Amino acid sequence: MINLLPDDQKRSIRAARMNVVLLRYNFITLIAIGALGLFCGLSYVLLNVSQSSATNKSETNTAQAAKYISVKKQADEYAANLLVADQILGRSVNYTSVIFAIANLMPSGVILDNITLNASDFNQQLTFSAKAKTTADATRLKDSFQKSSIFTNVYLQSVTDSSGDQAATPYPIEVSISAKLGKVTK
Prior knowledge:
With 186 residues, the protein is α+β, with helices and mostly antiparallel strands. Helix content is 58%, strand content 18%. It is built from four helices and four strands, in the order αααββαββ. The chain has a four-stranded antiparallel beta sheet, with helices on one face. The radius of gyration is 49 Å and the shape is rod-shaped. The termini are far apart.
């Protein structure tokens, strides 16, 4: 087919087609802008509804939390009391544990003459008086104290044999040991 239309008319037809295409693009753009505006409006409305809901919920929770202020105060006071009790118990001395720890160190054939302990005696150099059947038993007592974890700086102060006295005793050897007493862990 041969196009015999004049050039001006051909240009006018092309321009008309172009105008139709541009008009379609304008309508599509207007529809897209309208849809975008509608989405923004819906988002704004939903965010406002969500904000008011969150504000109401926050006010309700604050009102309910106000009811429990006294309970929270009591719980905080109880926790503080527990902390104080833990500190007090942490500093206390269980003398039974100390006595049992010392008794476990005593070799056979040795007895303690006397023992007096108080809180100020810990981490101090103390003197322990004991009686033994033989001098070897007295040496074993010193060695036992040295090997223990509760005594440090252990040494014999004196070893006296009283077997020549008139009264016969099963423990004739008197021993005096100096040692630094540490804390006993349970």
